[in-house]
Design goal:
Rossmann fold, six-stranded parallel β-sheet, about 15% strand, alpha/beta, about 35% helix, 16 helices
Length: about 375
């Protein structure tokens, strides 16, 4: 009934289930703020993470509260980067801008052969995903490769905005003072280089529904021995992982940044990235810095859990390693990675970064909200 009332000039933003002030919604919000548009803005927030938003001075509203439902039903626009529960209705005259949150390597939705996540079946997961995608009026795509996959895997039938990712505009706009500020916040000495370790989650490793677990499969003691004089490693677990890292024995070498507000600031301080199958590779690659892929479980991940959209083992823009010793060897030779993998790097950047120019948010805002 509330949803049938006339819409107000309200925009509701949400990033990663209300846990972060980050990603594409943040970039779009900040551009709208800069343009001084005549909207009322709300950030949908998981109450456990409200402190992350307060320091940015944004107006928040508690996710799933009564007020939240009323505001959602009266809002003219929703700007989200992940799915809403299927039982939340979308008013017919509310515009739902779904920005999504990554270029896909691993298979998505209808392209998945089997879903091994807790609390669902393959059929139910796909049906719910397609139902949710049918409510999106706009879907942001970072590149032509993603456009093809999103259209098919989500059975998306509305307007696709092939603009590049708004969140990556920051990677063209940051300043040296930002790097210094972030390092100071994390307690990283100015003379140390930074390794960012940002793995994805595993569908079949979980405590219970919605709470995934992750164990660090690298020998930090050995890495500190070999790399600690020159490097600090910053650990960033996926937002769906609920485990807390215990790094008390590595205080001078390892930093837990899993709860750092926005991964974009971890990108700019990092001299190289270690990841696995995470879409962070596509964003970090914009910076044209070396990447190492720690894929100790690639056989099971590729063949049983998800499957890949391209031949990752042949086309990854950096070495695929399975052991701590291989990590150490490649970090020591990090300056050679982009040279040794020049052909893969060139294909990677041409395929995934052709639209990344620092103006993606402008293109999205102009199409959805007008000039």
């Amino acid at each position: 009934m509330v949803g049938k009332l006339p819409k107000k000039e309200i925009i509701v933003f949400e990033s990663f289930l209300g846990k972060q002030y980050s990603c594409n919604p943040r970039a779009i919000y900040e551009l709208l703020q800069e343009q001084d548009r005549d909207f009322t803005y709300y950030w949908s927030v998981d109450h456990r993470f409200k402190s992350r938003f307060e320091k940015h001075g944004v107006r928040t509203i508690q996710r799933f509260s009564i007020k939240w439902f009323i505001v959602m039903m009266r809002a003219k626009y929703w700007v989200f980067n992940s799915r809403l529960p299927y039982w939340i209705p979308k008013p017919a005259d509310t515009v739902y801008l779904q920005t999504w949150h990554g270029t896909p390597l691993k298979k998505l939705a209808l392209d998945m052969d089997e879903v091994l996540m807790p609390g669902t079946t393959t059929e139910m997961y796909k049906r719910n995903f397609v139902t949710e995608a049918s409510r999106w009026d706009y879907l942001v795509s970072p590149n032509p490769y993603s456009s093809e996959i999103f259209t098919r895997a989500f059975d998306f039938q509305h307007e696709l905005l092939e603009t590049g990712y708004p969140r990556n505009d920051y990677l063209f706009q940051y300043e040296d003072s930002d790097v210094q500020r972030v390092k100071e916040t994390l307690g990283i000495p100015e003379d140390k280089k930074v390794i960012l370790y940002a793995p994805t989650w595993r569908d079949n490793e979980y405590h219970f529904i919605g709470k995934y677990k992750f164990a660090i499969q690298m020998d930090l003691e050995r890495m500190e021995e070999e790399l600690g004089d020159e490097y600090v490693i910053v650990m960033r677990l996926h937002y769906l992982v609920s485990d807390k890292l215990n790094l008390k024995d590595f205080k001078s070498f390892a930093v837990d940044a899993s709860n750092y507000p926005d991964i974009r600031e971890l990108y700019i301080i990092s001299d190289l990235l270690i990841t696995d199958y995470s879409s962070v590779m596509f964003d970090y690659g914009v910076l044209q810095r070396p990447m190492i892929f720690y894929v100790y479980d690639i056989d099971s991940y590729r063949d049983q859990l998800r499957g890949f959209y391209f031949d990752f083992e042949k086309e990854a823009p950096g070495p695929l390693v399975r052991t701590t010793e291989e990590i150490i060897d490649n970090v020591k030779d990090a300056d050679k990675i982009r040279i040794d993998y020049q052909q893969q790097v060139e294909w990677f950047e041409e395929t995934f970064h052709s639209l990344e120019d620092g103006h993606a948010a402008e293109r999205v805002v102009e199409r959805v909200f007008g000039r």
